[in-house]
Amino acid sequence: MTIEGGEFGVIADLLAPLAADGAFDLTDDAALLPELPPGQGWVVTKDAMIAGVHFLPDDPPDLIARKLLRVNLSDLAAMGAVPVGYLLATAWTAETDRDWISRFVAGLAADQATYGIGLYGGDTVSTPGPLGLSLTALGTAARDGLLRRNGAQPGDDIYVSGTLGDAALGLRLLQGDLAVEPEHAAFLSRRYRLPEPRCALGPALVGIATAAQDISDGLLADLGHIARQSGVGAEIHLELLPLSVAAREALVERPDLAQLPLHGGDDYELVFTAAPENRDRISAAARQSGTAVSRIGRILAGETVQALAAGRPLPARKTGWQHF
Amino acid sequence: MTIEGGEFGVIADLLAPLAADGAFDLTDDAALLPELPPGQGWVVTKDAMIAGVHFLPDDPPDLIARKLLRVNLSDLAAMGAVPVGYLLATAWTAETDRDWISRFVAGLAADQATYGIGLYGGDTVSTPGPLGLSLTALGTAARDGLLRRNGAQPGDDIYVSGTLGDAALGLRLLQGDLAVEPEHAAFLSRRYRLPEPRCALGPALVGIATAAQDISDGLLADLGHIARQSGVGAEIHLELLPLSVAAREALVERPDLAQLPLHGGDDYELVFTAAPENRDRISAAARQSGTAVSRIGRILAGETVQALAAGRPLPARKTGWQHF
């Protein structure tokens, strides 16, 4: 990378304005996180993304930045945590110029405003390989109120937020493997490039949901994690999966993709479980957080996670989570 | 990467045993950090390393892991923080096999025991480029006791821990650009591959040192950060720099490298400042932490960071910190 001002120029000019209180304008070796009220704890998570693997190299830099941030905020939301800040490591290539970085930073700034968070530090290095990014997100939650994966009970309802399959369709579209109406194309590609982490819904589910996680590898795979950690099985109905109008129309044209909402990744919606007597409280949490929530099935005894279409079991298939 | 068991196999088999309390055996989306006593705060830092840039691709995997961890612990030490844990992101290549990862994990396990820390989560991805790593270190410090870079005052003494230049000599040795006695070779290459973060000294300097930072880019460059942040100048004496026997003998053979202890990077020692009336307290902190400490110069008014040899200013040269 050859950037005017070098690493320290980039940090001082572009990144320092993003610094949170306690990050000392990024001038020091580390940052101090704010003090929490009694009973609150820090929740931490970290995800990495590689150009060509987790995003398309020619995706707009601001959207790459925002996706990186949002996939991590989605993990916090799945635990019921409220985001506070993040640390960022970037490995830039010889082609990464200051303009690219400026647009990347503009994306971070936009989402810092959206989510009310700040930058607590990180590192900038160069790489001869593809551009690589990693981000550590820091959030807070009541120490005794974390949403976990291991609390689902037979008889619990299964819910998902938002709509499923949009991002997987958007990726196919961006790769030239799908054609839809222009307005649907814009919607679906945006759903791939810019997830909507459920930062309001997650914390609203604390004390109600028995298990939760975000959907990054595909609904069945991620529901499988809940089932495995909880020692239960699950049954969901394809017809109950919430689909956007764009996805619905795309799938009418392409019936071969009908199961994409079950297996396609990158949804960054929440899948969670709750006892049937809490249906009203789930509805209230959805309303309160301005997030659509759909009931899609129920938790069973056993260890099989089964999807049904028209009441008949779909053939079991390899779930999507071996993503090396 | 083709690893038996895939990503989840690696996490469950190799990484889960490293998990700290609060990391839920790495089964969930995020981890909960432990509660701190009143007045203590979390200190966070993040560094990335790329094969071929920050370490040699054929370095032993356990030492790569330990260096990654230790360069981050060095940042915590520079702030006076005590390490507690870390998050890890790894981007493995097609050549990274399970044996390599096992040895990498063994290095993490060894240093977890050395420093009394645990793993709080992270991510494993694949990359078509060089192996890439990033680590977020989490430590604790008294909220009002952080060591910063901006507190140096004219008249303060300047100190460094340990010895300087060993790692830079070790790198030249490993690259075939230097020849020394075998026992010195082992020492110098180890100093490059396995830094000794000053985790005991850093916290012992709280309330005594007026400024501190770790030396990763070279003494003059990093002392330059302290000078810039504090709005002061500095003067150090080449003859006062602490050198190992191995470095001393290497530099006798190679007078062209005499200034390497000023500019060579990767020392991961601390450079810090303190008022002259605190010399006894600095000695006590050094003894208490079992760390050698040397006084090498003093802080001046102005903004020039000057090294002197035999009392005469060395020619000013570009400091080593533009390391893209």
Describe this entry's structure for a reader.
- The structure is a homodimer of 324-residue chains.
- Chain A is 33% helix and 24% strand.
- By secondary structure, chain A is of the alpha+beta class.
- The first copy, chain A, folds into 2 domains: 130 residues, 60s Ribosomal Protein L30, Chain: A (2-Layer Sandwich); 157 residues, Phosphoribosyl-aminoimidazole Synthetase, Chain A, domain 2, CATH 3.90.650.10.
- In chain A, the strands form 2 sheets. Chain A has a 7-stranded mixed β-sheet. A 4-stranded mixed β-sheet of chain A has the order 2-5-3-4.
- In chain A, strand 3, helix 3 and strand 4 form a beta-alpha-beta unit.
- In chain A, helix 2 packs parallel to helix 3 and helix 4 packs across helix 5.
- The C terminus of chain A is likely disordered.
Radius of gyration of chain A: 20 Å
Largest inter-chain contact set: A-B, 71 and 71 residues
Structural class designation of chain A: alpha+beta
Which whole number gives the mean pLDDT of chain A?
93
Helix content of chain A: 25-40%
Shape of chain A: globular
Percent range for β-strand residues of chain A: 15-25%
User: What is the architecture of the largest domain in chain A at the second tier of CATH?
Assistant: Alpha-Beta Complex
How many helices of chain A? The count is: 10
Task: Point out poorly predicted stretches of chain A.
Answer: 318-324
- What is the fold named in CATH at topology level of the largest domain in chain A? Phosphoribosyl-aminoimidazole Synthetase, Chain A, domain 2
Q: Kindly report how far apart the N and C termini of chain A lie.
A: 28 Å
- Describe the strand arrangement of the main beta sheet of chain A, using strand numbers: 7-9-6-10-8-11-12
- Output the helix-strand order of chain A: HEEHEHEEEHHHEHEHHEHEEE
User: Mind describing the biggest β-sheet of chain A?
Assistant: 7 strands, mixed
Number of domains of chain A: 2
